[in-house]
Amino acid sequence: MTMKNNMFVAVLIVALAAGGLWYIKTSKTPAPVMEKTEEPVTPSKAMPATDSAGTKETVVDDNAKEIVINASEYKFSPVTLTVKKGEPIKLTLKNVGKMPHDFVIDELGIRTKKIAGGDTDTIVFTPEKTGTFEYYCSVGSHRALGMVGKITIE
Ligand SMILES: [Cu+2]
């Protein structure tokens, strides 16, 4: 081989390598993903119905504070909760009793499903007002029998 031919081969190799890299790079580039925009919902503008209830729908619950409440005949455990205004809450009601129970806060407009003994139900909400409110079980006369507690929103 002549020097000229060697140069030609070298250039060819470099060109092929560059082309190959370019190909790999382009083929690996993922298709642009539409970003899911989750604009903060302003209750007063977008959701007047829930504004009066003092809560807003929470789509992302990755940062939510997790709270587990045990329900049995006829009490909740814990009986007091303290949370922060604007902090998303992921609340799980666990029925550790035998009768059906649920968890209701009228002032915040939230309630779990009525769940049977052994079942759980999880709700996600963000308290948007401060104060102390009662939570209770709306099944039968459970509220009167002692299934009440207090949530304080700071
Ligand atoms: Cu109950």
At a glance:
This protein has 154 residues and is an alpha+beta fold.
Features:
154 residues, Immunoglobulin-like, 3-stranded mixed sheet, alpha+beta, 2 domains, binds copper (II) ion, 5-stranded mixed sheet, 22% helix
Topology summary:
Elements: H1 3-28, H2 43-46, H3 48-51, E1 55-56, E2 65-72, E3 75-77, E4 80-83, E5 89-95, E6 104-105, E7 110-111, E8 120-127, E9 131-136, E10 148-153
Parallel strand pairs: 2-5, 4-10
Antiparallel strand pairs: 1-8, 2-3, 5-8, 6-7, 9-10
Bound molecules: copper (II) ion.
Q: Indicate the percent of residues in helices.
A: 10-25%
Instruction: Give the biggest beta sheet.
Output: 5 strands, mixed
Order of strands, main sheet, comes to 1-8-5-2-3
- Fill in the CATH topology of the largest domain: Immunoglobulin-like
CATH class label of the largest domain:
Mainly Beta
Q: How much of the polypeptide forms β-strand, as a percent range?
A: 25-35%
